[in-house]
Write a structure and sequence with these properties.
single chain, 380 residues, alpha/beta, 7-stranded mixed sheet, 6-stranded parallel sheet, 11 helices, 23% strand
Length: 380
């Protein structure tokens, strides 16, 4: 037992009080974990576009005050009743989606969309009692994605925590708890390119570059990056991208450009922007007979796209994926091992580092589109 187990812990957190306004670093009280919950000391956290999107409160119900953050790594401080698979001192990755182990999705080898713990952006409290574990002067502060890692301590459902190799550097593997695993898994688990094949990646942000990294690991011989921002092309070479297409430089649809480049289409494509036109292009640019397109980017929930049924009948496959089809607790330890075995290269995704006191600068970097991942050290 830790010497703080069962006690309320006062600590610093970056609280978002209103949309688009700088986070305020202030003292919060973090209550002890309840049944099936774990309190975690966050060591490092990162900023993901999902944090930015909900901080800006664009296109969804705004919930404030709130503690954002969901890409992180930490150490278990204490565990609640019923938690048997984690103990004090374990190194963990909190994940925005979970694995209860009991539902139909968890029992299926084909799904990672846990009924109990799948992502819920509107839920701002804990599942067990519908209450927050964060407060300031007795007033509750809302949770975010069940993780809220912009706090020195947080409380997470045990099914959303991945126990990892204690030798793995937490300041590197923290980025595996969201975007990087999403892109990597989209390629390795869903597109499954064969060695020597051709892969098109739509969108060369962090998720798209992780998809490219997956194609590199799989041994693809041609990795074609598609992006409207030519400044991204040079950086993308580090991730195995061999050729680049800027749709703005062509008078014909980009799927036609790619088909002409590849004698009929690529073997696999991965779409990482959430743009409807890019989704159609990603599907229509794969080769008939065997081509597979995978959609990763999240569009507006009411968005619709159109393609001709003949494209499917000509034996092209269209697939979607959530979190790269990784079951968090079951599969992420093996992704950490890929990094430890030098198969997966994580360092090149990390472009900035900041102390917790300068977390608002990380938001500035992301708003300006500077860099890929910014690691925030909670102890600096």
């Amino acid at each position: 037992m830790s010497n703080t187990a069962g006690l309320v812990i006062p600590c610093k957190a970056a609280v978002s009080w209103e949309a688009g306004k700088p986070l305020v670093i202030q003292q919060v009280e973090v209550a002890p974990p309840q049944a099936m919950e774990v309190r975690v000391k966050i060591k490092y956290t990162s900023l993901c576009h999902t944090d930015l999107y909900f901080w800006e409160a664009k296109g969804q119900t705004p919930i404030f005050p709130r503690i954002f953050g969901h890409e992180a790594a930490g150490i278990v401080e204490s565990v609640g009743k019923g938690v048997s698979d984690l103990q004090v001192g374990d190194h963990v990755l909190p994940v925005f989606t979970g694995e209860c182990g009991d539902c139909a999705h968890c029992r299926s080898e084909e799904s990672n969309m846990c009924d109990l713990l799948r992502i819920n952006t509107d839920r701002a409290v804990m599942l067990s009692d519908g209450k927050s574990r964060f407060s300031i002067n007795g007033n509750p502060i809302n949770h975010f994605l069940g993780t809220s890692t912009f706090s020195e301590y947080t409380v997470v459902h045990s099914g959303c925590l991945v126990k990892v190799d204690p030798l793995a550097p937490l300041d590197k593997i923290c980025i595996l708890s969201c975007g990087i695993s999403t892109g990597l898994g989209a390629t390795l688990n869903v597109a499954k390119p064969k060695k020597g094949s051709s892969v098109a990646i739509f969108g060369l942000g962090a998720v798209g570059l992780a998809a490219a990294e997956g194609a590199r690991i799989a041994g693809a011989s041609r990795i074609i990056g598609i992006d409207l921002n030519p400044n991204r092309f040079e950086e993308a070479k580090k991730f195995g991208v061999t050729e680049f297409v800027n749709p703005r430089e062509h008078d014909i649809p980009v799927q036609q450009v790619i088909a002409e480049m590849t004698n009929g289409g690529v073997d696999r494509s991965v779409e990482c922007t959430g743009n409807i036109n890019a989704m159609v292009s990603a599907f229509e640019c794969v080769h008939d007979g065997w081509g597979v397109a995978v959609l990763v980017g999240v569009p507006n929930k009411d968005a619709v796209f159109m393609t001709k049924p003949i494209n499917l009948l000509n034996e092209r496959t269209l697939r979607g994926t959530f979190f790269g089809n990784y079951k968090p607790r079951t599969d992420l330890p093996s992704v950490v091992n890929m990094y430890m075995n030098k198969k997966l290269e994580l360092d090149k995704f990390i472009t900035h580092r900041l102390p917790f006191s300068e977390i608002n600068k990380a938001f500035e970097y992301m708003v300006k589109g500077e860099g890929l991942r910014c690691i925030i050290s909670m102890e600096d």
